[in-house]
Amino acid sequence: MPTRSNAILQRLNRVRKFLRPGRAFWPGTALAISVIALDQLSKWWIVHRVMDPPRVIEVAPFFNLVMTWNPGVSFGLLQDIGATATWLLPAVAAVVVSILLVWLYRVQRMLLGCALALIVGGAIGNVIDRIMYGAVADFLDFHVSGWHWPAFNVADAAITVGAVMVVTDALLAPHEKR
Fold first, then answer.
1. Percentage helix, strand, coil, to 5, in the chain?
2. Which is the most buried residue in 66, 135, 151, 170, by most CB within 10 A?
3. What is the pLDDT of residues 138-161, one digit of tens each?
4. In the chain, where the domains are located
């Protein structure tokens, strides 16, 4: 029969294990910070240097640099919600980022950790724009035969790649017993 001190030690070990970050946390944190930095640097360069004055710059037959401001979410969704976007979208993003950070803190698999980090970094990058400008700066314009994909930015690309990686991890990772 375990003594009271053994039971306390076992509980402490469980708490310690629970509080220990997963192996993907620190690399994921570094990746998220890198995404935020790259996103904000690219937006600063486009907004304050390249697109002053705003114009269309043809980079390749299928790719332009443009300057658009998106008050909605990724790829122009929910643009018509008006002033509500000023506080609602950053609040929703903060909740989502908080949940993803807790998940990132616990995750062991590097693919999943990188995926979550890309989403977190992209979401924070776009929230910074909403706070600073009231909208998100989008400037990457890909097109084919006159059809243009909605303009996007580095943060949007990181969120999209991260989401694809989460799905890939869910499909390929070994399933753990519950």
1. 65, 15, 20
2. 151
3. 999 999 999 999 999 999 999 999
4. 21-172
Please indicate whether residue 52 is annotated as part of the active site: no
- The number of beta carbons lying within 10 Å of the beta carbon of residue 57 is 14
CB 127 within 8 A of CB 88: no
User: Residues 76, 70: contact at Cβ < 8 Å?
Assistant: yes
Q: What's the chain's length in residues? A: 178
Question: Which amino acid makes up residue 55?
Answer: R
Going through 74-150 in order, the beta strands assigned E by DSSP cover 136-144, 147-148
Residue 80 appears among annotated catalytic residues: no
pLDDT one-digit tens code per residue, 36-91:
999 999 999 999 999 999 999 999 999 999 999 988 765 555 556 666 666 788 89
Contacts of 126 (CB under 8 A, 6+ apart): 39, 74, 93, 136, 153, 155, 156, 159
Per residue in 110-122, pLDDT (tens digit) is: 999 999 999 999 9
- Token pair recorded at residue 22: 């997963």
Options 39, 138, 141, 169, the catalytic residue? 138
Torsion, CA 166, CA 167, CA 172, CA 174, rounded to 10? 60
